[in-house]
Design brief:
By secondary structure, the protein is mainly α. It has one domain. The chain has 11 helices and 4 strands; from the N terminus they run H-H-H-H-E-E-E-E-H-H-H-H-H-H-H. The chain has a two-stranded antiparallel sheet with strand order 1-2. A two-stranded antiparallel sheet has the order 3-4. A hairpin with a 2-residue loop joins strand 3 and strand 4. Helix 7 runs antiparallel to helix 8 and helix 7 packs across helix 10. The termini are far apart.
Length: 236
């Protein structure tokens, strides 16, 4: 039975303080993407051979990259509403929470020794892991055969950001058992949040480092908007 003290400790911050925290962090992350080709000739060569080319980092891959980044951000911070508030994807004690909120709750539960809450959070954590498995599948499929090159780019992103111990480095290196490794090593919401944020930053750096692919994506977007406007005009 959840006591009044536990409800006060968790549900009030969840509805007020933590939701404000999530909004500010979601707005802050990725404001400054890094050019992976700037300081490493090997990385620059890889990007030069892949930027804008079919099957590599062309406009279609940039679009897929943006979609994957959006999914990750929604997992970490929730879906942003028109009000500016974020609503999480994962149900905990009757409230929808983001991974960032759940990490804060978990830290409070550990500090206060709330074992029952930690058990509940562990169950939600497994839900998040399986959600990631499903959402990462297209990205993993697209990366098959290119994992060594992608790892070089991940390594450079982590190096430039000072993320030398990031789990993203371990996850990006393995070829076949990355799913099992992810499930084994993600033992807290803090682990998940850190891993997802490192991946969000890497994807932002990768996109920023492919100007030709970005230009192709912008042209695709322009043509799409133009077609939509023509369709609307044709109905009048």
């Amino acid at each position: 039975m959840i006591t009044h003290r536990i409800k006060k400790a968790f549900l009030v911050p969840l509805c007020v303080g933590l939701s404000l925290f999530s909004v500010s962090r979601a707005d802050e992350i990725n404001n400054e993407s890094l050019n992976l080709a700037a300081h490493n000739p090997g990385v620059a060569a890889v990007l030069e051979l892949s930027d804008g080319l079919p099957g590599c980092m062309n406009g279609h891959k940039i679009r897929a990259n943006k979609q994957w980044t959006k999914q990750l951000r929604e997992m970490v911070y929730g879906i942003k509403k028109s009000s500016g508030q974020h609503v999480g994807l994962y149900l905990f004690q009757g409230s929808l929470c983001s991974v960032a909120e759940l990490a804060e709750l978990e830290a409070l539960a550990i500090k206060d020794g709330l074992v029952e809450i930690l058990v509940e959070l562990a169950a939600v954590r497994e839900t998040v892991k399986h959600d990631f498995d499903i959402k990462v599948e297209p990205f993993s499929e697209a990366a098959k055969g290119f994992k060594s090159l992608i790892f070089m780019l991940i390594e450079e992103s982590c190096r430039l950001r000072g993320r030398h111990a990031s789990f993203l480095l371990t996850w990006g290196k393995v070829e076949d058992n990355d799913r099992q490794l992810f499930h084994d090593k993600m033992r807290s919401f803090a682990d998940l949040k850190e891993f997802f944020e490192d991946m969000i930053n890497f994807l932002a750096d990768l996109e920023h480092s492919c100007p030709k692919g970005r230009a192709q994506y912008e042209e695709m977007l322009r043509l799409y908007k133009e077609q939509k406007q023509q369709q609307v005009a044709g109905k009048k």
